[in-house]
Design the sequence.
């Protein structure tokens, strides 16, 4: 009898695992369980084209809703898995029902980090992780006059760009001294800050939010900062990072260290349990370290990796991480993981909003931020994977294509 596969989490990684298993010829039952109301969908447009109203639900879906039935994948939506019994090989659902598995895939993603301050749960304060969250934000937006965004990371800045396009003048409140601090050198971050400011976004750096104040209608009316300032806002969107959704695994006795610990094949220490996507912590041989990533590339690749391991054709996962973000007319693409101490080489024209920031660590090409430079993005992936050592002076010349350095 072919294995019965149960997948917990019907998001990017869980959906990909199910699709890949069928594509790779798995003939046994597949049960895909998700606690949201929707078939697996992509989150990136939530803070971009979907929030802007440029695309509808159907453009987010990984596969058309009928795909799952057509491919004999049992999709259980609005269903939360509450416990795993590894000895009995069962999962318990919120309803109390138990389902058996031969192989279990954990793909529970992440949950938002919450801002635990007085007034933090007033009506009008939102987080942005799910389609349902965006539907609520869109409804609030209709009556909103002043929006504040807490957190100047990708999501905060993407939302700021969309709200500006929709006619608002949002305030972005960021506790660090630069935006997108995790992935970006200060000079690239200040370029993004200037672009946002030129479109009317009010960016407050080195500013923490210590609470929120309600108006006479009981809804949020202001964000209070660490300097005591009250920033008027009737719509607040908080984007201050995420945490891996790994408690289920920890409670089942699996190793969780900043995500569910898996090997390069997506295997946990239990040979019947695998994990993929945001909720994992995995080794990357190319980077020679363990990582927890929050990206589509990682969720898709790990989903495929787990499927190959389950069907008995394991192939190790080792890719240079990449990510993208759209803000105004800027198409930002990031490859690799940079560090504040890296040497930064700029190639191209910052004034024309078309340049790349290349990060060198001890002379080795480790990461790139491409701003409207798609050609560099593709070539840099190979160079970073190959640990290339480009000459910094030549690298700075945009007339020399990056592929020349291969
Ligand atoms: P998810 O897609 O989050 O799926 C996990 C699912 O499991 C969720 O539906 C969750 O509700 C469900 N679940 C959790 N626990 C249980 C349980 N116990 N029982 C049942 N179901 C459960 N990445 C990029 O690369 N580029 C981008 O531009 C980009 N933009 C983004 C914009 C936004 C607004 C957000 C939120 C994310 C963005 N990301 C982007 C990140 C990317 O979407 C995630 O890395 C990716 O979705 C991770 O896939 P996943 O399957 O691990 O998690």
Sequence:
């Amino acid at each position: 009898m072919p294995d019965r596969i149960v997948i917990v989490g019907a998001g990017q990684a869980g959906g990909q695992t199910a699709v890949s298993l069928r594509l790779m010829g798995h003939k046994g039952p597949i049960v895909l369980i998700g606690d949201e109301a929707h078939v697996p969908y992509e989150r990136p447009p939530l803070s971009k084209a979907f929030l802007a109203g440029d695309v509808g639900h159907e453009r987010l879906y990984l596969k058309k809703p009928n795909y799952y039935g057509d491919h004999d994948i049992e999709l259980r939506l609005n269903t939360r898995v509450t416990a795993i019994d590894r000895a009995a090989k069962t999962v318990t659902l919120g309803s109390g029902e138990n389902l058996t598995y031969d192989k279990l895939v954990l793909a529970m993603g992440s949950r938002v980090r919450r801002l635990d301050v007085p007034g933090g749960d007033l009506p009008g304060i939102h987080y942005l992780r799910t389609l349902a969250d965006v539907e609520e934000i869109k409804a609030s937006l209709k009556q909103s006059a002043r929006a504040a965004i807490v957190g100047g990371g990708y999501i905060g800045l993407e939302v700021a760009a969309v709200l500006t396009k929709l006619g608002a003048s949002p305030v972005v409140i960021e506790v660090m001294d630069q935006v997108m601090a995790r992935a970006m050198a200060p000079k690239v971050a200040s370029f993004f800050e200037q672009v946002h400011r030129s479109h009317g976004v009010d960016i407050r750096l080195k500013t923490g939010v210590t609470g929120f104040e309600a108006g006479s209608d009981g809804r949020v009316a202001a964000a209070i900062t660490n300097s005591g300032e009250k920033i008027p806002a009737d719509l607040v969107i908080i984007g201050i990072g995420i945490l891996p959704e790994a408690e289920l695994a920890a409670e089942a006795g699996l190793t969780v260290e900043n995500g569910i610990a898996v090997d390069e094949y997506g295997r946990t220490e239990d040979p019947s349990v695998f994990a993929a996507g945001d909720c994992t912590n995995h080794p990357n041989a190319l980077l020679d370290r363990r990582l927890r990533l929050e990206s589509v590339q990682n969720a898709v690749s790990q989903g495929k990796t787990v499927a190959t391991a389950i069907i008995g054709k394991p192939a190790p996962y080792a890719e240079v991480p990449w990510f993208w973000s759209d803000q105004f007319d800027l198409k930002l693409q990031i490859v690799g993981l940079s560090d504040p101490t890296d040497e930064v080489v700029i190639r191209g024209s910052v004034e024309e909003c078309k340049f790349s920031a290349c990060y060198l660590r001890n002379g080795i090409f480790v990461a790139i931020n491409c701003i409207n430079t798609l050609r560099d993005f593709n070539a840099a992936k190979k160079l970073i994977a190959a640990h290339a050592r480009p000459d910094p002076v030549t690298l700075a010349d945009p007339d020399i294509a990056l592929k020349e350095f291969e």
Summary: Residues 216 and 234 are 12 Å apart (CA to CA). The domain at 125-238 is CATH 3.50.50.60 (FAD/NAD(P)-binding domain).
